[in-house]
Design goal:
Layout: E1 3-7, H1 12-29, H2 34-37, E2 47-53, E3 64-72, E4 79-87, H3 96-112, E5 119-127, H4 131-136, E6 140-148, E7 151-161
Parallel strand pairs: 4-5
Antiparallel strand pairs: 1-2, 2-3, 3-4, 5-7, 6-7
Length: about 160
């Protein structure tokens, strides 16, 4: 059974576990430079991190499967950015990505929705290889492609409204 842990910056052990997954996937597998992977946004007050594990009692990080980060956009209420979505190679095709994105969307609605009815716009920069995944979750993929860390990306967006 997959377990979701949503945390805020400031819990060093949790952030170390998040970084371990991101470095394994982005730096180790995809060749992203370390200085491109880590930024000051990890510790920003409006940042939320989500960690999915398959063993809730494991505090070592060995059971950690995936992570994602949600950034608030203070200049644009009702807009958030899903970033650094990473699933370990051994955990792919187990639904971890869906669990991560569902958790991010729930946080986005609960903490960042604006208007009546409450609506939030979730934006992300999708690697082209992940576009079918994001489409399956209801994200609309933009037409323009661009390089980010030497990997082709396209912008994607999903508008979520409380029911």
């Amino acid at each position: 059974m997959l377990r979701v842990d949503a945390g805020r910056p400031g819990y060093a052990a949790g952030l170390a576990r998040v970084h371990a997954i991101r470095f394994e996937v982005f730096v180790g597998e995809q060749g992203v430079r370390e200085d491109e992977e880590v930024d000051d946004l990890d510790a920003s007050p409006g940042t939320a991190h989500v960690l999915v594990t398959d063993d809730p009692d494991d505090a070592t990080g060995a059971a950690d499967l995936g992570t994602a980060r949600l950034l608030a956009d203070p200049a644009h209420p009702g807009v958030v950015h899903a970033t650094r979505v990473a699933v370990r190679g051994t955990a792919r095709r187990r639904g971890v990505g869906r669990v991560l994105m569902d958790a991010l969307e729930q946080i986005a609605l609960a903490e960042h929705a604006a208007g009546e009815p409450a609506t939030v716009r979730v934006e992300l920069s999708a690697q082209e290889t992940a576009m079918p995944f994001y489409r399956s979750l209801g994200y609309e993929i933009g037409a323009d492609r661009y390089l980010d860390a030497r990997i082709w990306h396209r912008d994607a967006v999903k508008v979520i409204t409380t029911s």
